[in-house]
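Fold this sequence, please.
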Amino acid sequence: PRVSHSKGIVELADPVTPKQTPFDRNTKKYVMIPGNAKVRHSVMLERLDKLAEYSEQTPLNRVESYGTDLGIITGGISYQYVKEILPQTDILKICFGFPLPLKKIRQFVDSHKRVIVVEELEPYYEEIIRAAGMISVEGKKYFGRKGELSPYRVAEGLHQAGIIEKVSGAAYDPAQLFPRPPVLCPGCPHRGLFAVLKKLKLTVTGDIGCYTLGTLQPLEALHSCICMGASIGMAIGLDKVNGSEQGVVAVLGDSTFLHSGITGLLDAVYNRSNTTVIIADNRITAMTGGQQHPATGHTLMGQKTKQVDFVALCTALGVDSVRTVDPFDYEATLKAIEEEVKRPGPSVIITTRPCVLMPQRIMETPYEVLLDVCNGCSACFRIGCPAIAPSKELTERGRPKAEIDPNLCTGCTLCAQLCQPEAIVLTQPAGKAK
């Protein structure tokens, strides 16, 4: 996360027109039948030898020398941490890491009394270096193989190695902040779907997207997320071994379905699986920044194009029961899922509501809580909406009543539908009676 969320100043060069290179119909290179593959293996090994020579010569792998007895071998973000803690120490910075420049590394090791490798997670550099005979090199016994490094963790490892004095954690660790776990946005259409799935106590195989947050409290209505496209295949498998008495549903987003879910649904049809697939269609690839996909009607460059019809696609794959619902219509969503999980054979439910943030933010009239009517039942708290919080006012039993932040509420109506005492109502304009 430290690397993927980092920012910096970028200087743009003049645009370069790509060179037009015609495709070389070299079948011995590009058609990997066994006879060609054997020959290409030798070519690959020759290429690796040339790359090893390049690795030794390229300035990408460079030594920063200060005349110290200690040498550090590192690369990537770990290099920045080392430079922060030991700015005047000899460093071999690896930027071209495969194949490693073993000759340059050996010269570096031989010219220092002690060499330590600083790298994240698995000891990739360290194991190759030690396997090449440089067994004095140390590393993972000081820095560990899990989590991510930080300046503080690197400093701790160097302290354990006896190189520096112990560093106060306050010098590197951020201040203790109020916990802010990841959560579905206020007005997210997935919230209504997961509220229903939690009520029905179904086994839900999930996928990768914003909706994966449905696994967290208080919704806790998604029970697996392994890799992109795995939801339908896992649901098929659980159905085959009777993995859930209540029923199994697979939940995946619109873009994930188009990327990796179509073949899974076809497999469900082919194997006559009693599986309900729910496509959470928010009409955008929201989690990664709002990219277009084949069902939005636009290319990534914003050009209009053909738009996939999910109902027609699923029907063409052989699904007999395909229906659409609005996930903010709680009762309709509840009824649809109850009926489809009882239906033999595969079925598809498409929950259709645009993302509340992309391509533009949706803000309807916010709701508010009538504190004199609220009985503190906490039903609205259980949908996990960031706009709803306990108020300072308590019921006679000491339970907090709810309040809604009008700056966050999008007017999705879900909490109002679940409020049995009808204490959640549309905010009235100033001066009008409620």
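The chain is about 30% helix and 15% strand. The mean pLDDT is 93.
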